[in-house]
Amino acid sequence: MASDSRRTAPRPGLVLDVDRSTPPVLFHHGEGFRLEKLPADRSRIIYPAEPLPGLPDPDESIRQALLNPIEDDPRPPLITPGMKLTIAFDDISLPLPSMRKPDIRQRIIEQVLDMAAAASVDDIHLIAALALHRRMTEDELRHCLGDRVYDAFAPQGAIYNHDAEDPDGMVELGLTRHDEQVTMNARAAESDLLIYVNLNIVSMDGGWKSTATGLSGYSGIRHHHNVATMQKSKSFMDRHKSELHHSNWRQGEVIKKNGPRIFQIETTINNNTFGYDGPMSVLQKREWEWTAKDRATFIGMKKGLDMMPTAAKRAIFNGWKAPYELTSVQAGDVEAVHEVTLEHCFKQHLVPVEGQTDVLTFGLPYICPYNVNSVMNPILVMCLGLGYFFNMYRGKPLVREGGVLIMSHPTPWEFHPVHHPSYIDFFEQVLSDTTDPLELEAKYEKQFAEDEWYIHLYRNSYAYHGVHPFYMWYWGASALQHLGRVIIVGGDKRAVRRLGFQPASTMQDALEMASDVVGPAPSITHLHNPPILMADVT
């Protein structure tokens, strides 16, 4: 069992200066791992804070949040007999990996439904807020909502996935002061009350982004998921410096004026991704603190994974459910709630870091928001590395302008044929022509966004929207603008080159290649995640 101190008095994040005695550092590498020895005296490692203690009674905390909302009326007075009530909730893109049962969304929704039943509300719909993501399966919905909720509402068609391409299921609410269209799921827009249940794993999530993106369609989302917006966003994780968020907040103004009354419920969880105990817990420890048992566990796990076929490894990792704990829950006014949520996010994730680096390194795991129960294809490797991990900062980017990013991932030339059909064509056709975000946006986006076959697969199968690979590429646009070179260690060389990056067989090779850009003996910073951290760079 983990010591009480780890559970009750977790240590903050740490920046470790590497010397000759520092052991090799862990790099995630898809469904495997690498141990790398970083150069002494010019390298540092940023470790996340240990998991914050969870709330002792999650169900009671949820109840109190509903009864004592922030800048809003308490739950019972808001729910009235005969009203049209819609409950929207975040889809499977969060958290990563998915959490052990019961999911927090289930805990919250069950209490809301009990309150609605007490008020004799019969007209209730539950909507998975997908935006342009793939539909959730029955098993995924059951995991998220629980059998009790699913069995009560699904048979009557009152639980379903948001369909952004349903011509009768979307409405336009107006234009922002920047002439951005605001669209919303019709059922949600026409409700007397919309309750949004949000799960914040990082500071990018929540606020007006929940409804302005999650319940919107292409005509609305395109105003903030575009190259210009992404290039202007200086860290997606810092709302006040994110043009993406500025656009969502402008759309929120229109929703507030012309849309339904919204009651926002936001939660934060700790970063207990791999547990305090068990075979995966070694991934959550600092390498120089590994015990003999930890080392043996890791070596055995790595050897076993190296011998397994890829399908078996994916089954193991996709089956992992994280023992996250609820660290906060707040409900009420969208903006007021979100400010409290951000405080809790930063409390878990922020690690003070002094100064930028010439070379930034990190390992990419097997999962990102868009390949849950699926395949991490090359475009998603780019998105996770340059769109998410690169942006895990507040203040300044970890790596200086013109610096080098080195990522570790197998980067297979492989795609899930059901989930990512438009990704295949994007990779084969679009990226073979250009990797420039502005050029591919101008030449190809409209064609993919309006393709009838892609729309059919999005609506009737389990495919991401046809435009989705473009947005994943745009996520990395700011990083592409900022960096002098991107190198991927251990990736399929053809796939890496198709992305416009440079392949390297070993970390040593990658560092030598980086020296061509940043000079000899560059400073090196390793971002040691997951678990998630956010560098507060001064």
Give an overview of the whole structure.
- The protein is α/β, with parallel strands linked by helices and 538 residues long.
- It has 22 helices and 20 strands.
- The strands form 4 sheets. Strands 1, 2, 3, 4, 14, 16, 17, 18 and 19 form a 9-stranded mixed β-sheet that branches. The chain has a 6-stranded mixed β-sheet with strand order 7-6-5-10-11-12, with helices on both faces. A 3-stranded parallel β-sheet has the order 13-20-15.
- A hairpin with a 1-residue loop joins strand 2 and strand 3.
- The radius of gyration is 23 Å and the shape is globular.
Number of strands: 20
**β content, as a range?**
15-25%
The averaged pLDDT comes out at 96
What structural class should be given to the helix and strand makeup?
alpha/beta
Kindly state the percentage of residues in helix. Answer: 25-40%
Individual helix count: 22
The end-to-end span amounts to 38 Å
Shape from CA axes? Answer: globular
Q: Residue ranges: pLDDT <50 for 5 or more in a row?
A: none
- Report the C-alpha radius of gyration, rounded: 23 Å
Q: In this structure, how is the largest beta sheet organized?
A: 9 strands, mixed
